[in-house]
Design a protein that fits this description.
0% strand, Growth Hormone, Chain: A, mainly alpha
């Protein structure tokens, strides 16, 4: 199927549900805690339930997309996300907010897992990596703009407005999917399996070395990224005294490093290849995490000293994540939705655990973020060392 020029824009817009829902309300953590009368750091529970909902939702949505195609599940998923985001805006307490966040994640996960399957339906190898980079270019605007927009809405209207904006975003996504998203999985290629068949397929996918090593490598990157996402509000807002708007600007600057690196991926692929990119990016990720640990545990309290290694680490993730995703899905064209779902579930389980750990380790300093990002970097280096160096042919 020939790829329409606008399709990466649509897929990126859909995938941005994740960063929009995650990043836009980060500056509101202190305001949410004050409004709901809960202790400092409690708002991070809502982030953990969001990541947990994504982990459960992705494995479900991917399997459904292999059975019912690439259009139906995201239509229903975006409807669920839209309704649950409205529930978040109306939540009277932290428990209700946490539950609605989990429901929103379950629905929104369709917009995150299915675009990757669409990419695998249309392309493989370098072509898939280039298409993924174009998708990230569009999706990447969300983590750059979302915290700033969230900070502005928080200053002018209150934290509930952030979730009303997410509600509107979900409604727009639903309409776009209904009107524009092509179904890239032919009816003849759809697989109808019972529960036992689905579990057997998952077993085949997980036992494939290329899948598990690439998925774990991407998961290690996500572990470090979500440690930063969850742990950054106390550091930037409380330790350095930044306003929510200033926090959004710093967060967006670091996110720009991720997006820029992802766009450099395509020209680098043709020059040095995927393997060398993953080798270099994982090594640089480790160096950046070690530098951040030196700053954090050395009690350096200069803002640029914290921001620079985080910027570099996120830039490395901009190279690791798209190439790891393509490597994980490359051998699983007949069931790309299930493979994408397993990969996303694994990665967001790691992200959810990192988010919880960041909440426990929050002490108003960057030490918790630094330690968790270092753990993620070590995991990425190990997974990179274990991944197969020669790609077998796709089945």
């Amino acid at each position: 199927m020939r790829t329409p020029f606008w399709l990466p824009v649509l897929l990126g817009f859909l995938t941005a549900v994740g960063p929009v829902s995650t990043d836009m309300y980060l500056p509101a953590f202190p305001a949410i805690e004050a409004a709901l009368g809960v202790p400092e750091g409690s708002a991070q529970i809502t982030l953990a339930t969001w990541f947990a909902g994504l982990a459960v939702g992705q494995v479900t949505q991917g399997t459904l997309s292999d059975r019912f195609g690439r259009r139906g599940p995201p239509v229903v998923g975006t409807l669920v996300y839209t309704a649950a985001s409205a529930g978040c805006a109306l939540a009277p307490d932290l428990l209700s907010l946490s539950i609605w966040r989990a429901v929103a994640a379950f629905g929104g996960s369709a917009s995150m897992v299915i675009p990757r399957a669409v990419v695998r339906d249309l392309a493989d190898g370098h072509a898939a990596a280039r298409l993924m980079a174009r998708l990230i270019l569009v999706m990447g605007a969300a983590p750059i703009l979302a915290p700033t927009l969230g900070g502005l809405m928080l200053a002018r209207t209150g934290w509930q407005a952030i979730f009303w904006a997410a509600t509107a975003y979900g409604a727009v996504c639903c309409v776009l999917v209904w009107l524009l998203l092509p179904d890239t999985l032919p009816r003849t290629a759809r697989v109808r399996l019972g529960a036992a068949g689905v579990l057997a397929r998952f077993g085949v996918i997980v036992r494939e070395r290329g899948f598990i090593t690439h998925a774990l490598m991407g998961g290690a990157g996500m572990f470090g990224m979500f440690a930063y996402i969850s742990g950054s509000p106390p550091v930037y807002i409380q330790m350095f005294g930044l306003s929510p708007a200033e926090y959004g600007m710093i967060f967006g600057l670091c996110a720009a490093g991720y997006v820029t690196a992802a766009q450099l991926n395509s020209p680098l692929l043709s020059r040095i290849g995927t393997g060398r990119i993953l080798n270099a990016a994982s090594a640089c990720y480790l160096v950046a995490a070690l530098a951040l640990c030196g700053v954090a545990f050395g009690r350096v309290t200069v803002l640029p000293a914290v921001v620079v290694p985080i910027f570099c680490a996120l830039a490395c993730m901009g190279l690791i994540l798209p190439n790891a995703a393509v490597g994980a899905l490359s051998r699983h064209a007949p069931h790309a939705g299930s493979a994408s779902a397993l990969m996303g579930t694994l990665q967001f389980i790691l992200g959810a655990s990192s988010s919880v750990l960041a909440g426990w380790l929050t002490d108003g300093t960057p030490r918790g973020i630094a330690a968790l990002m270092l753990a993620g970097a070590v995991g990425a280096v190990i997974a990179n060392a274990l991944r197969p160096r020669v790609s077998p042919p796709s089945p």
